[in-house]
Amino acid sequence: MVLKLTRNFALLYGVMLGDGCLSLVYGKRKFISIAGSMHDDIPFFEKIVKPTILSLINKDIPIKFRYAKNTIELNFMSKILFDYLSRFGFPIGKKGNKLFIPQIFYKKNLVKYAIQGFFATDGSLVLTDNNGTFYPRVEANGIAKELIKEISDYLNKEGIKCNFYEAKRKEHFYPNTQQAFRIQINGKENLKKFNKIIGFVNPKQIERLDYFYKKVPVGRVELPTSAL
């Protein structure tokens, strides 16, 4: 089996940037892990993540439920996928601030799909109801400053007005508080641009987007385009 640089791989790479990790067990067993919320990420894992992995390595990975932590996980060994992810600079072990989108993704016009995957995991669509008027905000958070800044710069170049700034993690969620960084995209027009140029692939975000458009008619809406 030979892996190629495709839209599906770029999407998975983005998912890994958000909630994935590579681990070497006993120095030689190559594990790939992707985590999500048991509360609202099951459809995303079933409809997007599992089929994407299946398309790449022909493996149907079962979802593991971690009831004590209210999380779900995909944990599996795949030397070929592990090595291919690592080849593009994805770190083994703790990710910290080592994350970035590989330059070849820009040359192959695959950045969009990596950002789709990242926003599907570490992003959210927030709707603020101000006396019946809904204000949308797309945002994403992470501790990898260079990655967050890189994505912010790309979105701005694509005409999606995007703010980048420091944000503090809440201590009751993260006892070992680290400096976090945020991408924030405000307003209806920027939401339309984001949806058209990048697109949402996580069903919970698509459902929230549909709810917003039902409340705030804005004409014809482009459906999000996934790699699948």
Keywords:
single chain; 228 residues; alpha+beta; Endonuclease I-creI; 8 helices; globular; disordered C terminus
User: Mean pLDDT across all residues, rounded?
Assistant: 91
Q: How would you describe the shape?
A: globular
Helix content: 25-40%
Q: For the record, what is the CATH homologous superfamily label of the largest domain?
A: Homing endonucleases
In the CATH hierarchy, the architecture of the largest domain is Roll
How many E strands?
Answer: 8
The proportion of residues in beta strands is: 25-35%
> What is the CA-atom radius of gyration, in angstroms?
17 Å
- Could you say what the CATH topology of the largest domain is called? Endonuclease I-creI
The separation of the N and C termini measures: 20 Å
SS-based structural class? alpha+beta
- Total number of helices: 8
The oligomeric status of these chains comes to: single chain
Total count of domains: 2
- Across the major sheet, the strand order is 1-2-4-3
Task: Indicate the low-confidence ranges by residue numbers.
Answer: 219-226
Helix and strand sequence: HEEHEEHHHEEHEEHH
Main β-sheet description = 4 strands, antiparallel
The CATH first-level class of the largest domain comes to Alpha Beta
